[in-house]
Amino acid sequence: MTITITAFERSPDRGRGLARDMRVRWALEEVGQPYDVRLVSFKAMKQPEHLALHPFGQIPTYEEGDLALFESGAIVFHIAERHAGLLPGDANGRARAITWMFAALNTVEPPIFDRALATILERNEPWYEQRLHALENGIRKRLADLSSHLGGADWLDGAFSAGDLLMVTVLRRLNGSGILEEYPNLPDYVARGEARPAYKRAFDAQLAVFTAASAN
Asked: What is the pTM (predicted TM-score) of this model?
């Protein structure tokens, strides 16, 4: 059965690989699974057909036979469980990798995503500078802890896993902010993720959508 995922018809990230379908594309590339992509507009995302797949009207979604999933973390977890390559074979290592998946999305991503939204939606508000300062302080606390754990290792817990895949996609949202560079091992960590052939294939596929949309 062919896997079909959804992605933005015109992504607001302008082809930078920040939209959350990137995580799913990368996971599928890592495990060598072919997939189709159905592009949806912002209007279509709020229509009944898409809401039947994603109750909150977002992307990505994942369809395979009679299985339909939403939420990028849940989809990556499903892919990692079903196909070898993203979770360790031993039970303890597997549990730790899953813990890092949750940490990436529940602990590290929220202040980073909130900062990204604030720079777009709150820039002209009188409280913007104070809000940004608070968010960046929270981000630095998370990054300091993450940097300390990573140390000189290549990956978070032994071999590359779904935990690293999600963490790298989360940290990439800080590109251009200068914050990540305050912790020298973290830009190197992200670069290792971006250097993986599966990442490059996923990035190129997402960029091609933006390039095609821009040409029309």
From this structure: 0.95
